[in-house]
Backbone:
Protein backbone atom coordinates (compact mmCIF):
# COMPACT_ATOMS: atom_id res chain seq x y z
CA UNK A 1 0.00 0.00 0.00
CA UNK A 2 1.07 3.53 -0.72
CA UNK A 3 0.72 6.53 1.55
CA UNK A 4 -1.65 9.49 1.69
CA UNK A 5 -0.14 12.93 1.23
CA UNK A 6 -1.72 15.65 3.37
CA UNK A 7 0.14 18.92 3.74
CA UNK A 8 -1.34 21.89 5.62
CA UNK A 9 0.33 25.27 6.03
CA UNK A 10 -0.60 28.80 6.97
CA UNK A 11 -0.98 31.35 4.20
CA UNK A 12 0.27 34.92 4.48
CA UNK A 13 -2.08 37.83 3.81
CA UNK A 14 -4.39 37.29 0.85
CA UNK A 15 -2.04 34.58 -0.47
CA UNK A 16 -2.11 36.07 -3.97
CA UNK A 17 0.95 34.10 -5.14
CA UNK A 18 -0.68 30.76 -4.35
CA UNK A 19 -3.90 31.91 -6.01
CA UNK A 20 -1.87 32.59 -9.15
CA UNK A 21 -0.41 29.08 -8.95
CA UNK A 22 -3.69 27.32 -8.21
CA UNK A 23 -5.56 29.18 -10.96
CA UNK A 24 -2.61 28.83 -13.37
CA UNK A 25 -2.14 32.55 -13.87
CA UNK A 26 1.41 31.66 -12.85
CA UNK A 27 2.86 28.58 -14.58
CA UNK A 28 5.50 26.65 -12.62
CA UNK A 29 8.37 24.96 -14.45
CA UNK A 30 7.04 21.44 -13.86
CA UNK A 31 3.60 22.09 -15.39
CA UNK A 32 2.68 20.37 -18.67
CA UNK A 33 0.81 23.29 -20.21
CA UNK A 34 -0.89 21.15 -22.88
CA UNK A 35 -2.74 19.31 -20.08
CA UNK A 36 -3.85 22.36 -18.06
CA UNK A 37 -7.32 22.18 -19.61
CA UNK A 38 -7.85 18.95 -17.61
CA UNK A 39 -7.63 20.78 -14.25
CA UNK A 40 -10.95 20.84 -12.41
CA UNK A 41 -12.64 23.15 -9.89
CA UNK A 42 -14.06 20.96 -7.12
CA UNK A 43 -15.67 23.65 -4.94
CA UNK A 44 -18.36 25.94 -6.33
CA UNK A 45 -17.89 29.61 -5.50
CA UNK A 46 -20.76 31.60 -3.98
CA UNK A 47 -22.75 33.85 -6.29
CA UNK A 48 -20.72 36.88 -7.32
CA UNK A 49 -17.37 35.28 -6.36
CA UNK A 50 -15.04 34.56 -9.28
CA UNK A 51 -11.75 33.41 -7.80
CA UNK A 52 -9.93 32.01 -4.76
CA UNK A 53 -8.93 35.37 -3.29
CA UNK A 54 -12.52 36.65 -3.44
CA UNK A 55 -13.75 33.37 -1.94
CA UNK A 56 -11.48 33.79 1.10
CA UNK A 57 -12.71 37.34 1.68
CA UNK A 58 -16.34 36.36 1.12
CA UNK A 59 -16.13 33.76 3.86
CA UNK A 60 -14.49 36.21 6.26
CA UNK A 61 -17.15 38.83 5.53
CA UNK A 62 -20.04 36.42 6.06
CA UNK A 63 -18.82 34.31 8.98
CA UNK A 64 -20.22 36.58 11.68
CA UNK A 65 -16.85 37.39 13.19
CA UNK A 66 -17.08 39.84 16.09
CA UNK A 67 -13.43 40.71 16.40
CA UNK A 68 -11.56 42.79 13.88
CA UNK A 69 -9.09 40.73 11.88
CA UNK A 70 -5.51 41.61 12.80
CA UNK A 71 -3.05 42.79 10.18
CA UNK A 72 -0.84 39.72 10.59
CA UNK A 73 -3.61 37.27 11.38
CA UNK A 74 -3.78 34.13 9.25
CA UNK A 75 -6.78 34.32 6.97
CA UNK A 76 -6.43 31.03 5.11
CA UNK A 77 -4.77 27.62 5.23
CA UNK A 78 -3.30 25.90 2.22
CA UNK A 79 -4.11 22.20 2.04
CA UNK A 80 -2.50 19.85 -0.47
CA UNK A 81 -3.93 16.33 -0.84
CA UNK A 82 -2.47 13.51 -2.91
CA UNK A 83 -0.84 10.11 -2.55
CA UNK A 84 2.32 8.24 -3.45
CA UNK A 85 3.06 8.92 -7.15
CA UNK A 86 2.83 5.28 -8.22
CA UNK A 87 -0.47 4.85 -6.32
CA UNK A 88 -2.00 8.01 -7.79
CA UNK A 89 -1.05 6.66 -11.22
CA UNK A 90 -2.74 3.37 -10.36
CA UNK A 91 -5.89 5.16 -9.12
CA UNK A 92 -6.04 7.21 -12.31
CA UNK A 93 -5.57 4.18 -14.58
CA UNK A 94 -8.32 2.35 -12.66
CA UNK A 95 -10.75 5.21 -13.41
CA UNK A 96 -11.08 6.08 -9.71
CA UNK A 97 -9.65 9.59 -9.81
CA UNK A 98 -13.02 11.38 -9.79
CA UNK A 99 -14.19 9.32 -6.83
CA UNK A 100 -10.89 9.96 -5.02
CA UNK A 101 -11.26 13.72 -5.56
CA UNK A 102 -14.89 13.68 -4.41
CA UNK A 103 -14.03 11.73 -1.24
CA UNK A 104 -11.06 14.01 -0.53
CA UNK A 105 -13.32 17.07 -0.75
CA UNK A 106 -15.87 15.31 1.42
CA UNK A 107 -13.22 14.72 4.09
CA UNK A 108 -12.18 18.40 3.92
CA UNK A 109 -15.74 19.66 4.39
CA UNK A 110 -16.48 17.20 7.20
CA UNK A 111 -13.22 18.06 8.97
CA UNK A 112 -13.13 21.86 8.61
CA UNK A 113 -16.76 22.72 7.85
CA UNK A 114 -18.28 22.98 4.39
CA UNK A 115 -18.47 26.81 4.51
CA UNK A 116 -14.79 27.04 5.45
CA UNK A 117 -13.55 25.04 2.45
CA UNK A 118 -13.70 27.93 -0.01
CA UNK A 119 -11.62 26.51 -2.86
CA UNK A 120 -10.50 23.16 -4.20
CA UNK A 121 -8.74 22.53 -7.51
CA UNK A 122 -7.67 19.18 -8.94
CA UNK A 123 -4.40 19.58 -10.85
CA UNK A 124 -3.85 17.05 -13.63
CA UNK A 125 -1.18 18.96 -15.54
CA UNK A 126 1.68 17.87 -13.29
CA UNK A 127 3.33 14.46 -12.91
CA UNK A 128 1.22 13.37 -9.93
CA UNK A 129 -2.50 14.27 -9.59
CA UNK A 130 -3.20 16.35 -6.48
CA UNK A 131 -5.70 18.78 -4.96
CA UNK A 132 -4.97 22.32 -3.80
CA UNK A 133 -7.64 23.25 -1.28
CA UNK A 134 -8.12 26.44 0.73
CA UNK A 135 -9.58 26.48 4.22
CA UNK A 136 -10.54 29.63 6.13
CA UNK A 137 -9.68 28.70 9.77
CA UNK A 138 -12.94 29.71 11.42
CA UNK A 139 -13.86 27.71 14.48
CA UNK A 140 -16.24 27.87 17.42
CA UNK A 141 -15.88 27.23 21.09
CA UNK A 142 -13.35 28.36 23.65
CA UNK A 143 -9.91 29.35 22.44
CA UNK A 144 -7.32 26.69 23.11
CA UNK A 145 -5.02 29.14 24.90
CA UNK A 146 -7.92 30.52 26.97
CA UNK A 147 -8.92 27.01 27.98
CA UNK A 148 -5.39 26.19 29.10
CA UNK A 149 -5.22 29.48 31.03
CA UNK A 150 -8.57 28.79 32.68
CA UNK A 151 -7.50 25.32 33.73
CA UNK A 152 -4.25 26.71 35.10
CA UNK A 153 -6.10 29.42 37.05
CA UNK A 154 -8.52 26.86 38.43
CA UNK A 155 -5.65 24.87 39.81
CA UNK A 156 -4.09 27.94 41.39
CA UNK A 157 -7.38 29.34 42.69
CA UNK A 158 -7.26 32.48 40.56
CA UNK A 159 -10.49 34.05 39.35
CA UNK A 160 -11.53 33.24 35.78
CA UNK A 161 -13.77 35.49 33.71
CA UNK A 162 -16.60 33.93 31.73
CA UNK A 163 -16.17 34.04 27.95
CA UNK A 164 -18.54 33.45 25.04
CA UNK A 165 -17.76 29.90 24.00
CA UNK A 166 -19.89 29.44 20.89
CA UNK A 167 -19.08 32.51 18.81
CA UNK A 168 -17.24 32.08 15.46
CA UNK A 169 -13.56 32.88 15.66
CA UNK A 170 -10.74 33.17 13.14
CA UNK A 171 -7.96 31.13 14.73
CA UNK A 172 -5.43 29.18 12.66
CA UNK A 173 -3.50 28.12 15.79
CA UNK A 174 -6.53 26.26 17.14
CA UNK A 175 -7.19 24.56 13.80
CA UNK A 176 -3.52 23.59 13.47
CA UNK A 177 -2.91 22.43 17.02
CA UNK A 178 -0.44 19.54 17.11
CA UNK A 179 -2.98 16.96 18.28
CA UNK A 180 -5.39 18.04 15.53
CA UNK A 181 -2.72 17.84 12.84
CA UNK A 182 -2.01 14.25 13.86
CA UNK A 183 -5.74 13.50 13.86
CA UNK A 184 -6.10 14.95 10.35
CA UNK A 185 -3.47 12.53 9.06
CA UNK A 186 -5.28 9.60 10.68
CA UNK A 187 -8.82 10.44 9.56
CA UNK A 188 -7.75 11.30 6.01
CA UNK A 189 -5.92 7.97 5.74
CA UNK A 190 -9.07 6.20 6.96
CA UNK A 191 -11.11 7.96 4.27
CA UNK A 192 -8.56 6.98 1.61
CA UNK A 193 -8.12 3.33 2.67
CA UNK A 194 -10.56 2.22 -0.05
CA UNK A 195 -8.02 3.46 -2.62
CA UNK A 196 -5.16 1.45 -1.16
CA UNK A 197 -3.62 4.42 0.68
CA UNK A 198 -2.52 4.40 4.29
CA UNK A 199 -1.26 6.83 6.92
CA UNK A 200 2.43 7.70 7.09
CA UNK A 201 4.47 6.53 10.06
CA UNK A 202 3.36 8.34 13.22
CA UNK A 203 6.31 10.15 14.76
CA UNK A 204 8.37 10.04 11.56
CA UNK A 205 11.22 12.55 11.40
CA UNK A 206 10.47 13.33 7.75
CA UNK A 207 9.92 17.07 7.27
CA UNK A 208 7.50 18.83 4.96
CA UNK A 209 8.66 21.73 2.87
CA UNK A 210 6.48 24.67 1.92
CA UNK A 211 4.93 24.92 -1.53
CA UNK A 212 7.07 27.98 -2.29
CA UNK A 213 10.21 26.09 -1.29
CA UNK A 214 9.19 23.13 -3.43
CA UNK A 215 8.74 25.29 -6.52
CA UNK A 216 11.96 27.18 -5.75
CA UNK A 217 13.77 23.86 -5.76
CA UNK A 218 12.02 22.87 -8.99
CA UNK A 219 13.15 26.20 -10.53
CA UNK A 220 16.73 25.60 -9.39
CA UNK A 221 16.71 22.07 -10.80
CA UNK A 222 15.28 23.37 -14.07
CA UNK A 223 18.10 25.93 -14.35
CA UNK A 224 20.68 23.27 -13.53
CA UNK A 225 19.23 20.99 -16.20
CA UNK A 226 19.21 23.86 -18.69
CA UNK A 227 22.91 24.49 -17.97
CA UNK A 228 23.68 20.79 -18.38
CA UNK A 229 21.78 20.65 -21.65
CA UNK A 230 23.60 23.77 -22.89
CA UNK A 231 26.94 22.18 -21.97
CA UNK A 232 25.97 18.98 -23.76
CA UNK A 233 24.93 20.96 -26.83
CA UNK A 234 28.34 22.70 -26.75
CA UNK A 235 30.06 19.32 -26.51
CA UNK A 236 27.94 18.04 -29.37
CA UNK A 237 28.89 21.03 -31.52
CA UNK A 238 32.58 20.48 -30.70
CA UNK A 239 32.29 16.79 -31.54
CA UNK A 240 30.47 17.69 -34.76
CA UNK A 241 33.35 19.98 -35.75
CA UNK A 242 35.89 17.31 -34.84
CA UNK A 243 33.98 14.69 -36.83
CA UNK A 244 33.76 17.04 -39.81
CA UNK A 245 37.54 17.64 -39.63
CA UNK A 246 38.22 13.90 -39.45
CA UNK A 247 35.88 13.31 -42.39
CA UNK A 248 37.73 16.01 -44.39
CA UNK A 249 41.05 14.37 -43.51
CA UNK A 250 39.64 11.02 -44.58
CA UNK A 251 38.50 12.47 -47.92
CA UNK A 252 41.93 14.06 -48.46
CA UNK A 253 43.67 10.78 -47.63
CA UNK A 254 41.36 8.92 -50.02
CA UNK A 255 42.16 11.43 -52.76
CA UNK A 256 45.90 10.88 -52.14
CA UNK A 257 45.40 7.11 -52.27
CA UNK A 258 43.48 7.44 -55.53
CA UNK A 259 46.29 9.60 -56.99
CA UNK A 260 48.90 7.04 -55.93
CA UNK A 261 46.86 4.22 -57.49
CA UNK A 262 46.58 6.20 -60.74
CA UNK A 263 50.32 6.82 -60.78
CA UNK A 264 50.94 3.12 -60.14
CA UNK A 265 48.61 2.18 -63.02
CA UNK A 266 50.35 4.56 -65.42
CA UNK A 267 53.77 3.25 -64.38
CA UNK A 268 52.60 -0.31 -65.07
CA UNK A 269 51.33 0.72 -68.50
CA UNK A 270 54.62 2.49 -69.30
CA UNK A 271 56.63 -0.53 -68.12
CA UNK A 272 54.52 -2.91 -70.21
CA UNK A 273 55.00 -0.72 -73.29
CA UNK A 274 58.75 -0.52 -72.66
CA UNK A 275 59.00 -4.29 -72.28
CA UNK A 276 56.99 -4.82 -75.48
CA UNK A 277 59.19 -2.37 -77.37
CA UNK A 278 62.32 -3.99 -76.04
CA UNK A 279 61.13 -7.46 -77.05
CA UNK A 280 60.29 -6.19 -80.54
CA UNK A 281 63.70 -4.53 -80.88
CA UNK A 282 65.45 -7.69 -79.67
CA UNK A 283 63.49 -9.81 -82.16
CA UNK A 284 64.34 -7.39 -84.96
CA UNK A 285 68.01 -7.41 -84.01
CA UNK A 286 68.05 -11.22 -83.94
CA UNK A 287 66.42 -11.35 -87.38
CA UNK A 288 68.91 -8.89 -88.77
CA UNK A 289 71.83 -10.83 -87.24
CA UNK A 290 70.50 -14.08 -88.75
CA UNK A 291 70.16 -12.41 -92.14
CA UNK A 292 73.67 -10.96 -91.93
CA UNK A 293 75.08 -14.39 -91.00
CA UNK A 294 73.32 -15.96 -93.99
CA UNK A 295 74.69 -13.32 -96.31
CA UNK A 296 78.17 -13.87 -94.92
CA UNK A 297 77.93 -17.63 -95.57
CA UNK A 298 76.74 -16.97 -99.09
CA UNK A 299 79.61 -14.63 -99.75
CA UNK A 300 82.16 -17.19 -98.55
CA UNK A 301 80.67 -19.92 -100.68
CA UNK A 302 80.73 -17.74 -103.73
CA UNK A 303 84.30 -16.77 -103.01
CA UNK A 304 85.27 -20.46 -102.83
CA UNK A 305 84.08 -21.03 -106.37
CA UNK A 306 80.74 -22.63 -105.74
CA UNK A 307 78.22 -21.41 -108.23
CA UNK A 308 74.88 -19.94 -107.37
CA UNK A 309 73.09 -22.84 -109.05
CA UNK A 310 74.91 -25.33 -106.87
CA UNK A 311 74.06 -23.46 -103.77
CA UNK A 312 70.34 -23.30 -104.69
CA UNK A 313 70.37 -26.99 -105.53
CA UNK A 314 71.83 -27.81 -102.08
CA UNK A 315 69.24 -25.64 -100.38
CA UNK A 316 66.50 -27.52 -102.21
Residues:
Amino acid sequence: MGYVVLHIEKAAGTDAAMSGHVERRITPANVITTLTYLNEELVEFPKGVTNRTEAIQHRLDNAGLERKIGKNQVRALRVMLSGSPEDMKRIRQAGQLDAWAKDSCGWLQKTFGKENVVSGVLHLDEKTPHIHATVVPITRGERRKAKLEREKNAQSGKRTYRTKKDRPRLCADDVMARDKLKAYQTTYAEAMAKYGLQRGIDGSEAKHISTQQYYREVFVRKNEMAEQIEAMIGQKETLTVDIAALQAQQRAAQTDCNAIDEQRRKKKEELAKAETKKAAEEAKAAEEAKKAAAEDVLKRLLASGVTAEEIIAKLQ
